[in-house]
Structure formats: C-alpha cells, structure tokens
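sorry for the late reply, my laptop died twice this morning and i had to redo everyting from scratch. anyway the thing you sent over, i finally got around to it. pasting the sequence first so we're on the same page, its 231 residues, then the predicted structure underneath. double check i copied it right bc i was rushing
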Amino acid sequence: MQTSHNRGFTLIEVLVAIGVMALMTLMAWRGIDGMLRTQSGLQQRSDQIRTLQAGLAQWQVDLDQMTELTGTPAWDWDGQVLRLTRRTATANDVQVVAWTWRSNPTNGNGGQWQRWQSLPLQKVSDWQAAWRLAAQWGQTPDDSTQAGQTQIHPLQGWQIFVHRGGSWANPLSSDIVTPNGALKPSQPTLGAVPDGVRLVLNLSASSPIASGKGGPITLDWIRPTFSGPKS
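ok and here's the structure:
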C-alpha cells in the first residue's frame, strides 16, 4: 500500500514566483506613474488655458469700458505700459488700469503679462494720483504699487497695434498708412480712444499651451461706437 505525500514548492519555484510578482508590480507602478504624469500635464495645460482666457476676457472688458472724461485721457501707451481710464460698476466712479509685460530672465517662459488697477475714483485729484501711480508701476514697481497687481500669464513678449485712419499702425508711430497706400500725418487727440486695438501675445515654446511650438496669439478689439469709414 502506497502512501501519497503532498508535494510543496521548491526554493527555486518560490524565487521564480517572487521575481514574476515583483516584475508585474514594477510594470503596474510604471503604468500608474505614467498616467499620473499625463493627468498632471493635462491639468496644468487646462489651468493655463483658463488663466489666459480670463486675462483676454479682462483685457476686452477694460477696453470696452474705456471712458473719456473732461481733462482725463482714456488711453496712453508709452511703449512699456498701457494705461486706461475705465468705468466701474458704480455709475459715478472710474478706475485706472494698466497692462504691461515684464521680462524675467530667471523665468523659462521669458516674462509675465501683468495687470494693475486702482481703487474706484471720484475726484480728479485722485485720478491724477492713480494715473501717475500706474506709470510708476509699469516702470519701477514697488511695494506701494504692487498691491493692485495681478499676474496674468507667462509670455515671451507682446505687441500692441492701433487702428486709426483706416489702417493698423504702431501706437508710437507719427504716420498712418491710408487705404490707398499714402502716408497721412497722424494727429489724434491726446489720449483719444483708437478705433481698434490689436494685441499680439508671444507664447513660449515651453508653455503647455504652445505644445512645444510657441508662436503668437492675436486678438483684435474694435471700439463699440466705431461705425467704420463712410462709403
């Protein structure tokens, strides 16, 4: 009569099984890590798209709400900072806002697109102080001006063009090209709102939005009361 014995695993079989399990665990971990990295990248890109969209929306609102008051310019561009006088939600108040791009060599994206705003204003003297403060913020920001500052989006740079006399031109140019190609002296009223503003934002190639390609984003704004040239 033969007695049956239960045969156990040998040491080699146990080691092989442990090795297979370790390999499968490593592969599973790498897959999870890859998914988490992809999700993080997509989230970062989504966040940057939202911040850029919010910045562009705010840009358009500021331009839409520009107002020309007696003795106060609605618009000023000095090549570094754009200052605007705009209406607020309160009928009797105005506000000074400013936009600029500030280079940052330590930032891989090149710099930051920034916005500044004053408190609501009712007195001309307060507006004058805010107007000067906006210029100071655009050139040499300090603790007194950074309270109203908001970081909008990292950029490589930006450009602004204005539409006056039927054509797009550099805001600092002294001449404007007319539709027939002739040069016409540009003598707009100081601080007058242009017929249109073209904003060109240069994205960094390292920006998640650019997907390694970089390139500009162009947004045109047309003054709501602009009716165009008469036929």
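The helical segments are 11-64, 124-139.
thats about all i looked at so far, will dig more tmrw
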